[in-house]
Design a protein that fits this description.
Strands 1, 2, 3, 4, 7, 8, 9, 10, 11, 12 and 13 form an 11-stranded mixed sheet that branches. The protein has a two-stranded antiparallel sheet with strand order 5-6. It has a single domain (2-195, 266-282), classed as TIM Barrel, CATH 3.20.20. By secondary structure, it is α/β, with parallel strands linked by helices. Strand 8, helix 3 and strand 9 (152-157) form a beta-alpha-beta unit. Helix 1 (72-86) runs parallel beside helix 2 (109-122) and helix 6 packs parallel to helix 7 (242-254). It has helices spanning 72-86, 109-122, 137-145, 163-169, 176-190, 208-217, 242-254, 282-285; strands spanning 2-8, 14-20, 25-33, 38-41, 45-47, 66-69, 95-99, 127-132, 152-157, 194-200, 223-228, 258-262, 279-280. The structure holds iron/sulfur cluster. Pfam families: Radical_SAM. This is Radical SAM core domain-containing protein. Its cofactor is [4Fe-4S] cluster.
Length: 290
């Protein structure tokens, strides 16, 4: 795994790296200078088999949506290359190693745990984060039971208050009841926070009725991050308006949830949430087996 290219956002705070695997795939990694911390958002797989309809990773049109999982060594090198390139290995600001790039981490759980454990022991101030579609609640419990030596926030893609609507957005996922129970187990067992991500899609999941259903679904005090959707011509959605987003937040907060509006960094260079994708090099293109 080595750095192939990098691009910078207009404000210079976000970099998107393309890194080449030994077998010729180009995976993407994001670095964000977040003021009081560095964030490295890494990919766990080449492509993603979950196929979320609002995500560029899940909606490739070339029938090669998923190629392979990355090994623990590849995950570690993917991040260590960025650390070296930024010169931050002994910086006094902590590094957040965030498994939120391309791929579903719970489908590559052993490698992801090994990599996060490595970062926890190599960098005393390191923190971890992992985002999942909720595909296997049992693996969320496994994350808690494995006692990974790094403080690790769990983020869960919620995106809808009912199983019916959620299945239309995330084709492969478990029931909300099972995911909520597993998240509660994780928070209790590890003492680490759990956040729920909700991307507000215009006319799909942004109505007041959806906000009220979330209040009925989630325990009081649950933290929801309302992500602004990064519009993409490949995807059939548009972001909710700013006014809709503000009123959605108000309804959630009046109902006892903690709601936070969030805009991802680097969306102008395709480095934001749901924008990372892989590419193939000539090595792969010219190989008849792939
Ligand atoms: S949102 Fe995550 S799980 Fe869904 S397709 Fe994209 S990378 Fe995969």
């Amino acid at each position: 795994m080595q750095i192939h290219s990098r691009s910078a956002s207009s404000d210079g705070k976000t970099l998107k790296y393309r890194q080449m695997t030994e077998d010729g795939f180009l995976v993407e990694t994001t670095y964000v200078d977040h003021g009081n911390k560095h964030i490295i958002c890494f990919s766990s797989q080449v492509g993603c088999p979950v196929g979320c309809h609002f995500c560029a990773s899940g909606q490739r049109k070339d029938e090669k949506r998923f190629r392979q999982s990355l090994s623990a060594a590849e995950l570690i090198l993917q991040c260590e290359n960025v650390v070296a390139d930024r010169g931050i290995d002994d910086d006094e600001r902590p590094i957040l190693f965030s498994c939120m790039g391309e791929g579903e981490p719970l489908l590559n759980i052993s490698a992801v745990i090994s990599a996060l454990a490595h970062f926890g022991s190599r960098y005393p101030l390191a923190r971890g984060a992992l985002s999942t579609s909720g595909i296997f609640p049992a693996r969320i419990r496994e994350l808690a039971d494995r006692r990974i030596p790094i403080p690790m926030k769990l983020q869960i893609s919620l995106h809808a208050p009912t199983d019916e609507l959620r299945k239309l957005l995330i084709p492969r996922t478990a029931s909300l009841d099972a995911i909520i129970a597993a998240a509660s187990y994780y928070a209790t067992k590890t003492g680490n926070p759990v956040e729920w991500n909700y991307v507000l899609l215009r006319g799909v999941n942004d109505d007041r009725s959806h906000a009220l259903a979330l209040i009925a679904l989630l325990p009081h005090g649950t933290h929801i991050k309302l992500n602004r959707f990064n519009a993409d011509p490949r995807l059939p959605f548009s972001p909710a308006s700013d006014e809709t987003q503000r009123s959605f937040v108000r309804v959630l907060e009046d109902g006892g949830l903690i709601a936070e509006s969030y805009r991802t960094n680097g969306s102008d260079i395709g480095a934001g949430c749901g924008q990372l994708t892989y590419a193939v090099s000539a090595v792969v293109l010219l190989s008849p087996a792939r």
